[in-house]
């Protein structure tokens, strides 16, 4: 803003009269974009981002000093109605963070996602009708809402931590569920809670869905999603006995930030190594691996008893027996 005095955003006049084509203003502070709902006054010599969502050219007119002085004080969106609420979605990869992503039921305009922040390898946005937003609110005072969230990254091997700020302002009759569309699980978010996830080498986008509203609405729209495992586990293989392949299910609990090393190896009845089935880092969740009764060199093994052992970090080791019959 190339002026020596502050300018109220509401005082700026544009050629569309009603201003419906303009989205903004946004500004960049402390490595994060601030959305329009937090900016009522443009400060002298600061930079702001405004998007023209239409196809026609818009002319913006900055009022004179006299006009600015006469402007009435802009009203702040307060929580006058206890049924209205706003929460903030936050994501961090330990090196940078994405904040000021707001959603809720207050009467505000939706805000588009600004350009990517310099030096950041990821972005997060609310996705609606194929477009990315930094702010999305329910329409016509609706109490229930669904928000689709995406995290996009250019570094496809990162651990992330996400949280929701403002949970203490959520009305008692409003329930919240976060659905992880990859893991097919429902994440419980407490007032001071956070959860961890990863974007591995085969992903470039992670998708989540936020469900908020009355208990019936949340239950209906989160049906079929289980909870994340609370403990490590290794299940019996199915089928057992088997020929020529069998499935092994296991669970990785969230015991800290980031992924944990997991290995599953197969041994014969004499304790000799046969095959490595899994040797990689996992985020919390439920997993299944198949053994096709072949050894490390791709050759079929003979009939008999075999043992498979899982090791998860330094906290969990378990061995089970399986029988291969020809």
Number of helices: 2
The mean pLDDT is: 84
Helix content: under 10%
Strand count: 26
Shape: elongated
Distance between the first and last residues' Cα: 79 Å
Q: Mind telling me the C-alpha Rg?
A: 26 Å
Could you please describe the fold and organization of this structure?
Mean pLDDT is 84; it is low at 66-80. The protein has helices spanning 65-70, 215-221, and strands spanning 7-8, 13-14, 22-29, 32-34, 41-42, 49-52, 60-61, 86-92, 97-104, 111-112, 122-128, 131-137, 145-153, 158-165, 175-180, 185-187, 194-199, 205-213, 226-227, 233-234, 246-252, 260-268, 273-282, 285-291, 304-312, 316-324. The protein is built from two helices and 26 strands. With 326 residues, it is mostly beta strands.
How are the SSEs ordered, and which strands pair?
Elements (H helix, E strand, L loop, with lengths): L6 E2 L4 E2 L7 E8 L2 E3 L6 E2 L6 E4 L7 E2 L3 H6 L15 E7 L4 E8 L6 E2 L9 E7 L2 E7 L7 E9 L4 E8 L9 E6 L4 E3 L6 E6 L5 E9 L1 H7 L4 E2 L5 E2 L11 E7 L7 E9 L4 E10 L2 E7 L12 E9 L3 E9 L2
Based on the model shown, name its key terms.
four-stranded antiparallel beta sheet; mainly beta; 326 residues
């Amino acid at each position: 803003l190339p002026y020596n005095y502050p300018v109220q955003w509401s005082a700026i006049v544009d050629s569309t009269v009603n201003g419906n084509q303009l989205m903004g203003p946004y500004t960049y502070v402390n490595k994060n974009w601030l959305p329009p709902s937090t900016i009522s006054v443009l400060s002298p010599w600061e930079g702001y981002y405004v998007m023209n969502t239409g196809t026609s050219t818009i002319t913006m007119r900055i009022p004179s000093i006299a006009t600015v002085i006469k402007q009435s004080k802009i009203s702040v969106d307060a929580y006058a109605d206890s049924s209205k609420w706003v929460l903030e979605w936050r994501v961090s990869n330990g090196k940078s963070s994405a904040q000021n992503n707001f959603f809720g039921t207050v009467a505000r305009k939706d805000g588009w996602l600004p350009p990517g922040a310099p030096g950041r390898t990821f972005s997060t946005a609310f996705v609606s009708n194929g477009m990315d937003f930094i702010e999305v609110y329910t329409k016509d005072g609706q109490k229930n809402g669904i928000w689709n969230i995406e995290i996009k990254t250019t570094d496809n091997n990162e651990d992330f931590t996400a949280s929701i700020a403002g949970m203490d302002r959520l009305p008692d009759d409003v329930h919240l569920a976060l659905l992880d569309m990859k893991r097919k699980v429902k994440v419980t978010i407490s007032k001071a809670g956070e959860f961890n996830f990863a974007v591995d080498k085969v992903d470039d986008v992670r998708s989540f869905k936020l469900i908020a509203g009355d208990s019936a609405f949340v239950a209906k729209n989160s049906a079929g999603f289980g909870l994340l495992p609370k403990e490590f586990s290794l299940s019996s293989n199915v089928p057992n006995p088997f020929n020529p392949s069998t499935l092994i299910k296991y669970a990785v609990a969230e015991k800290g930030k980031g992924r944990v090393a997991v290995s599953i190896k197969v041994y014969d009845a004499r304790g000799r190594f046969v095959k490595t089935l899994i040797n990689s880092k996992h985020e919390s969740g439920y997993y299944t691996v198949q053994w096709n009764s072949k050894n490390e060199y791709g050759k079929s093994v003979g009939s008999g008893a075999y043992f498979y052992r899982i090791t998860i970090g330094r906290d969990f080791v378990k061995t089970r027996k399986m029988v291969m019959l020809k």
